[in-house]
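hey so u asked for the seq, here:
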Amino acid sequence: MRRDARMLAALFERPVGLGEAWEVSGTWSGEVEGGPDELHVRVARRRGHAVPCPECGVPCGARDARERTWRHLDIWQSGTYVHCAVPRTDCPEHGAGTVPVPWEVRPNSHFTALFEAQVLAACMRGSTVKAVAEALGEDDRRPRDMLGRAVAQARGSADHPDAGRVGTGETSRAKGHTYIPAMLDLDGRRRVAVTDGNDRGSVGRMCDQLEAHGGDRAATAEAARDMSGSFSSGVPGEMPQAARTAGRSRATRPLPGATDRAGCRERRESDEKREAPERTKYVWPEREESPAGRQREVRERLAPNRSHLRTARACQMTEAMRDVCGRATAEEARPMLDRLPGWMMHPDVPDMKGVARTVRENREGIPGHLDGRPANAYLEGANSLTRSIKRAARGFRNVEYLATAIFLRLGGLSFDALACAQS
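ran it, structure tokens below
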């Protein structure tokens, strides 16, 4: 070999670890119109080494060979490709079988193990598959399929026997109301289940995935959850023994919108009611102790006992819910929460009735956040990271690939065996 060919062969042999049975038999470069040159490495089986059967490992003769090509890490900033006539064994017991090669992670892969490790590392840091594929000069379909197989194989070996505290949340797959529920191990801080369809059976499907990886829904001690109807009915049905927790932000989120709708409805009724709350848009969302100066004067002038405005009454109900969520312990909050839905069902403020029904359905979970603040913080943080994955990819048309992206970034999976050894 020439000096540069020997150097290229060494750059390939050392990180791959060909061993005694394989050798680099040739190297060459190829010109690419409009781009950098390509480097090609040919690997062959050393003479005198029998080929082992992939099933039983018994050395036997070679039946034939199949020419294959793999994409390797770039060497000298040039796309590098590995070529090999992979022999097939002629085992008397198992018949023909393809001999595994040391630079390949799984059979029939288009990439070497080091190339797959580079793609995995880039995607786990937050890069999209399209951006990684463009940087490596590849079409994004093969890296996408490779990630799906790698995540599926890593998920197959994942084990979650200690998932005693879980959290359930949902995120939209794209614009509209197509939601993807997911389950989080609060102690391990990793996603353990993702399913399609936010229906009443979504919690059951996620629990099935948890049990498929060593978990036990009957041993779950705490379940932090969203306040959607599917979780409100699914969590008690699937994990009745678990203490239910609904986050403070979930409990108070519907109230400002309902207050705004009440104000819009009231202003359409008469000129007098339209003029009374004029220029008070930013007064109502404030907490009672927050306004100062003119805003405080407006709040006092438009108080329910003076103006009889439904907007002011809705604002009072919002303040009452915030007061419930601001209690120091769940024991203090429960009596107040028992009285609140009945008051919110007041016929003068119909826009608050839907919120009241939601509060009544989640009565057991709302006080639970006072004793489990870290659980809700972890759940909200994981939901935020899921939304960042969706924003980086500009949404997902394929639910399975969204699940792959979630497990890749948030599943706590181990890819050591996939990137460094023959599986």
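The chain is about 45% helix and 20% strand. Residues 419-423 have pLDDT under 50 and may be disordered.
lmk if thats what u needed
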